[in-house]
Amino acid sequence: MKRAELEKVQGKKVVDRMQKAPARDRFGAGSSGIHDRREQRKRDQAAGLVPFAVKLPGDLVAALQDRAKSSGQALGDLAADLLRDALQRGKR
Prior knowledge:
The chain has 2 domains: 1-49, no CATH class; 52-92. The protein starts with a helix and ends with a helix. The chain is 68% helix and 0% strand. The protein is elongated. By secondary structure, the protein is mainly alpha-helical.
């Protein structure tokens, strides 16, 4: 066999392997992250949770993260509790 024919045969082998590969491994189709995020969004909406993005100084965020870790709370839950307490104190 000539070199060019050998390259063609090897190329066909590669193409055949790619076509026989499971589709879930190609192009990220097997990732289930999109469905998980959708389900999480539905659960959050059912619980009455609303995404609320704010920009805070880095030292404040670090303090919040440390406090959440030491108390064993999720960061969102801790922030909600602190905001609720501060708003209640402001009403008095």
